[in-house]
Amino acid sequence: MFECIIVGDTGSGNEDQIKVTESMEKLIHKNKSISSVIIVGDNIYPDGCNDIHDEEFNTKFRDIYKNIDLPFYLCLGNHDYHNNARSQIEYTYSQYNRDKKWNMPKQWYTQSFPHCDMFFIDTNFYQFPESVIQKQLSDTIKSIKNSKKRWKILCGHHTWRSVGGHGNAEPRHEEFMDNLLDQVDIDIYICGHDHCKSLIHVGKYNIPTLVIGTGGKSYDENLVFLEKTKYDNSQLDFFSPNLGVCHMKCDNKKLTLTCYNESLQKEYSISL
């Protein structure tokens, strides 16, 4: 059995992030098998980091998570690009990360766990020339095809389908997903960006997408678009505006995702 915590939009350094961190600590104490934490972008608010020496790595990450002695695996969000996004990759290899707590080895990469492979992508497509998008697409397709694990999980920052304020994927992201899924299968896409939790089955592929951007930013009710017209018959199964995290566990037969609020009250669970 593999177990991890998944959350996004964490790096505010404020009371909201502290609340969620405390709930993570309690969840880990309760579930001793949790072995990793996944953060799906917007790791450092508001503007990412200047370089590997930036104090923001301490105030928004190390100081906050000092009581969580687990490896964190991260991808880049839009706020991480406000400054030097590459510094978050370089920090992985720096003298400040000798404990290997921060893990972002490349702009996009694969991380293998028992029973599942996670494919971390960089969804900041507006930042890239077409050649970079195609290289990421080719690399990701190859990695998924080569995977021998039961579960194949795609992780990125931007939403694919969402009822939150940012809504559905922008055209370059949508095209990337279409081109990817024309050639390979995934079991779920997990992201942040919208500061809410939701589970939507994407109609044209019948693939679930989990939005879990609730690790450090409270939801702005002015951004609620629950009445948003369904896109390609996508089905909303769950929505919550509350801070909190997702607990994922999987073996060779079943993958279960359970969402909690910041008080560790269970809000939703689904098994694939």
Note the main attributes of this structure.
alpha/beta; 7-stranded mixed β-sheet; Purple Acid Phosphatase, chain A, domain 2; 272 residues
What do these coordinates show?
- By secondary structure, the chain is α/β, with parallel strands linked by helices.
- The chain has one domain: Metallo-dependent phosphatases (Purple Acid Phosphatase, chain A, domain 2, 4-Layer Sandwich), CATH 3.60.21.
- The chain is built from five helices and 14 strands.
- It has helices spanning 15-30, 56-62, 86-92, 130-146, 171-181, and strands at residues 2-7, 34-39, 72-74, 102-103, 109-113, 116-120, 151-155, 188-191, 197-202, 207-212, 235-240, 244-250, 255-261, 266-271.
- Strands 4-3-2-1-12-13-14 form a seven-stranded mixed beta sheet, covered by helices on one side.
- Strand 7, helix 5 (171-181) and strand 8 form a beta-alpha-beta unit.
- The longest helix is centred in the middle third of the chain and has 17 residues, at 130-146.
- The chain is globular and about 40 Å long.
- The two termini are 15 Å apart.
- The relative contact order is 0.17.
- Residues 224-229 have low confidence and may be disordered.
